[in-house]
Amino acid sequence: MTLRFVQVGAGSMGLAWMRTLAATEGVELAGVADLDTERAAAAVRSVFGDADVVVGASLGEVLAATAADAVLNVTVPAAHTEVNVEALFAGLPVLCEKPAAPTLAEAVVQAAAAEVTGRLLMISQSRRYYAALAAYRSRLAELGTVGLLTTGFYRGPRFGGFREEMEQPLLVDMAIHAFDAARYLLGTEPVSVTCESWNPAWSWFKGDAAAMATFLFGDGARYVFTGSWCAEGLETSWNGEWRASGSGGTATWDGEDRVTSSAGGAVDVPPGGAEQISGALAEFVASLRTGAEPSGAISRNLYSLAMVEAAVRSAESGERVEIDALLETAHADALALPLREEIRVRLQGAS
């Protein structure tokens, strides 16, 4: 059975997702919703030619004109909650670009909406989907107990636009990829964080483009992220450079294809199967076909977003931030938002 998607958002990332849908067997694009319908129609033509794809200005309009099986949300983060909630209550599962929302409270609302409707909401943490990352995780398992995991991330991109105006561009827009990968590699959840952020004198960003965060995980392991978005020269991979120290030795990953272990030597891991957003789409489709919960299900993804918000709060306050306490605060904040009654009842029941 071919799964028919309605995509919301037709910007540059939306175009990338259209190309991914076009290249994936067993799925098709049934419709696109975007406030700029001319841009959406042009994007569809550039990928699908004259294929019969409905284009409209709103999700509701496009859903009414299609027999869709799922929604792909590629809007800006500020629109994620509205789109996801609408789709879920329309009875459709949703694959949503990261981050789930600009705030943890809004993500909690989305998790409650998924529970109330019984529909899947999966967040696309696309940088989980690398064959080399999976190989690195296997090497970590050979090390016994991992006590320290580190990421060094150093890039000097000149994006222009909104990123260069953000208060915390590195932590908010990029670090979630590394934080989420750390959860995947360690197999446990974060407990607390201390974080310092700053903006080097030569930075072209308005906000803090450099940061260092130390997370305590549930099994006692520490994860340390050190990064800069104004570090030109000798740049790391977009995935950063990784090192793990365990009871049985050390393992590194260069963020590309080279995985090295003191226990097993070095190996170059070629790309395998679906990677990045193709990998997210593949896991989403497999989940719909089998019923298995994907790694990016909203209830599981909350901790990755919580790591970002906790790091930002620690950087701003200079104090250690407890993750579970932050989640409790987010739950209370969620109840203060304008909500559908079904979501409010679910959140109150979880208090």
UniProtKB/TrEMBL annotation:
Domain GFO/IDH/MocA-like oxidoreductase: 163-251
Keywords assigned: Oxidoreductase
InterPro entries per UniProt: Gfo/Idh/MocA-like_OxRdtase_N, Gfo/Idh/MocA_oxidrdct_glycsds, GFO_IDH_MocA-like_dom, NAD(P)-bd_dom_sf
Record bears the keyword Ligase: no
A Gene Ontology molecular function term of the record: nucleotide binding
Domain of life: Bacteria
PANTHER family noted in UniProt: BCDNA.GH03377
Protein name: Predicted dehydrogenase
Taxon lineage: Bacteria, Bacillati, Actinomycetota, Actinomycetes, Streptosporangiales
